Amino acid sequence: MNWLLPEYIADALPAEAERIERLRRALLDHFRSHGFEFVMPPMLEYLESLLTGAGQDLKLRTFKLVDQLSGRTMGVRADITPQTARIDAHLLNHRGVTRLCYCDSVLHTLPATISASREPVQIGAELYGHAGIAADLAVIRLMAGAFARIKVPVSRIDLGHVGIFRALAEAAGLPQESEETVLSLLQAKDVPGLCEACADVPTPYREALQRLPQLYGGVEVLERAAAELPALPTIAAALEGLRHLVASAPDLPFSVDLSDLRGYHYHNGVVFAAYCPGYPAAIALGGRYDGAGKAFGRDRPATGFSMDLREVARLAPVGKPAGAILAPSAAHDAKLAAHIAALREQGEVVVELLPGENACEGPVCDRKLAQVGEHWIIEAIQED
Fold this sequence. Notes:
Elements: H1 14-33, E1 37-38, E2 44-46, H2 47-50, E3 63-66, E4 73-76, H3 81-92, E5 98-105, E6 121-128, H4 133-149, E7 156-161, H5 162-172, H6 176-187, H7 191-197, H8 205-211, E8 216-217, H9 221-228, H10 233-248, E9 254-257, E10 270-275, E11 284-288, E12 302-308, H11 309-315, E13 324-327, H12 334-345, E14 350-352, E15 365-372, E16 375-380
Parallel strand pairs: 1-5, 7-9, 13-14, 13-15
Antiparallel strand pairs: 2-4, 3-4, 5-6, 6-12, 7-10, 8-9, 10-11, 11-12, 15-16
Helix pairs in contact: 1-4, 1-11, 4-10, 5-8, 5-10, 6-7
């Protein structure tokens, strides 16, 4: 059965493909209106480039192959963000702030969830060159505005900060293996397992690590965290940054989750995740990942977000598809051909029938061109 596709790989048929393309245009226009420039990195790169620095978390998700020209190992990108970091650091070489956006397919060795595709269409925006919390806020507002633009409601935006766990792990003297174990337990919110894993961690860091899964909820969690976590300078600075975000955007549906450490080895500051009603997972993820360009020659502050456009298309309002106009063949009628061309210039979809073709199997044709005397007019197609 040579028509079968690999598992978690699927075609986008006309209706879905049209929605994805419509959303792509709307979102890229939204990014452009905020000064974000569009880039198109290649699908393939040498593996060390894709997995350098902030890309190390992608190692298991990246398909690998041998370049027949150089003999070097190449990778099929699993994330476009490291590629934009390379472009900012090595090719554009701007001194100030750089704003970039992108939209293209990526490929994963395994699906992110049981329902996810292994070929997501990743769309996102990245901001380089500004280390302040204002840049994080600008990116979060850009994301919220993107969902508003395509009429997808956002029920909440979870905020976190990977620096809090990193500071606790360092202060507690956790060895690398123990740190990874505790990290995975925190991500799973496995409180019993966490208590067992932290049994030998000294006070007060043992109690603080065990408290992190409970530091989840409304923005008041930030004050609880300040009272319950050790008064380490890094933690105080992280909480102050999160407070500033919340205070600066009272219109956004912020919540807090200090144990959400997805991308822990990738991010190093504020992280955020957007959720929509009726959708079980985060629909967009983002955060700060300073230093991603260091391996490419420039150590730059960086923050951004991305989402899978195929998943977003499932949540966006479908809307009524624009109807098309059915026209007879204009192969031997210059006047009809000119009229069809004019309609297409006006944005109409005109399906010109081929000789022997009686109906259109593609776009829904709700109108037709009919000749009245010497003129061609548009008439509604009456349903039988």
